[in-house]
Amino acid sequence: MSRLGSSSRSSMRAWPVDPRRRITVEYVLIAGRNDTAEDAQRLVRLLDRIPAKVNLIPLNEDPTYLPGWKRPAEEVIDRFAATHDFEGIFAIVGSYDR
């Protein structure tokens, strides 16, 4: 998650966004890799003072290209999204075929 560097965050903060709009951040949720409460809090901190909405994308499993990587359970996805709603960051959970 630290791949969102400080220059990227600075650019996002400085971007001239209309007050009624938000910058969309795409975040792929992968079971056991970036779906914990700590990961959710880290994302909230990274987006501090950035007018953002988060599109949470549960991983679409593919045993050929992503062996061993799994989609988080629905309750984990809901808990992750609720952290952002509580912190004032609008979070959308993408719904894709499983």
Task: Report on the architecture of this protein.
The protein has 98 residues and is α/β, with parallel strands linked by helices. 33% of the residues lie in helices and 18% in strands. It contains 3 helices and 3 strands. Strands 1-2-3 form a 3-stranded parallel β-sheet, with helices on one face. Helix 2 (37-46) packs parallel to helix 3 (74-86). The protein starts with 5 loop residues before the first helix and ends in a 5-residue tail after the last strand. The model has no long low-confidence stretch (mean pLDDT 88).
Mean pLDDT: 88
> What characteristic shape results from the CA principal axes?
globular
- Cα-based radius of gyration, to the nearest Å: 14 Å
Order of helices and strands: HEHEHE
| Uncertain residue ranges | none
Helicity, as a percent range = 25-40%
Amount of beta strand: 15-25%
Number of DSSP E strands: 3
Please tally the helical runs, counting DSSP H or I stretches of 4 or more residues: 3
Give a quick account of the main beta sheet: strands, pairing sense, barrel closure.
Answer: 3 strands, parallel
Alpha-beta content class: alpha/beta
**Distance between the first and last residues' Cα:** 25 Å
**Spatial order of the strands in the main sheet?**
1-2-3
Key structural traits:
alpha/beta, three-stranded parallel beta sheet, 3 strands, globular
Give a quick rundown of the structure.
With 98 residues, this protein is α/β, with parallel strands linked by helices. The protein is built from three helices and three strands, in the order αβαβαβ. 33% of the residues lie in helices and 18% in strands.
